[in-house]
Structures are given as structure tokens and as C-alpha cells.
């Protein structure tokens, strides 16, 4: 099996791919809250696992101020660069699925609730 065949096999397990084609989302849920679901994903360029965060826009239909607050938080995350803060890679709005997606660094050692 050559590297190209391996890549094709790996891509077949993705249930969703970001608009750039760089990140592929698996069906495995890492965490779920009131408004956000976090999935395991893979960065094809760096060869590392990442966290794919998905927020359904229907969660904000009754409160546009909350949606604006959420977008401000996303913008803030994009600007932060510190060794003790989770890395933010990209974000986009998926109009077909009515969701906001963003990809961050993946931490597998547990949750902050422990």
C-alpha cells in the first residue's frame, strides 16, 4: 500500500471536511454541551488530531445578542497566542447545515471539570 492509498482510506472515514479541505471531522463526539458539540478531527497538513467544535445556529434564533457575543469570542480566540491557551486554527459558517464551526487544539488528558 502506498501513501496515496492510505490517504484515500483515511479520508473515507471523515463525515465532514472543512471548506479548505485541510480538516476532516470524524463521527466521534469528544464532548457535548448546551450549545456546542466537540468532535475528534484530523489536520491533513500537520498530521495531527484536532478538535472540531460545532455550534448550531438554531441555538441563537431567539437571542441575536448571544450570537453577536459568540462571534466576538471567536474573534478573540483568533487573536490569542500564548503557550497556556488552547490554539485556535480556523472557523467558518456552514450555511447548508446552519452551523458555526471552529477548529482548535485537541487536549486528550481529560477535562477541566476533573
Automatic annotation (TrEMBL):
Top-level lineage group: Eukaryota
Catalytic activity as recorded in UniProt: L-threonyl-[protein] + ATP = O-phospho-L-threonyl-[protein] + ADP + H(+); L-seryl-[protein] + ATP = O-phospho-L-seryl-[protein] + ADP + H(+)
Domain Protein kinase: 24-114
Entry's Gene Ontology molecular function annotations: ATP binding; protein serine/threonine kinase activity
InterPro entries per UniProt: Kinase-like_dom_sf, Prot_kinase_dom, WNK_Ser-Thr_kinase
A Pfam family this chain is assigned to: Pkinase
Record keywords: ATP-binding, Kinase, Nucleotide-binding, Serine/threonine-protein kinase, Transferase
Protein name, as recorded: non-specific serine/threonine protein kinase
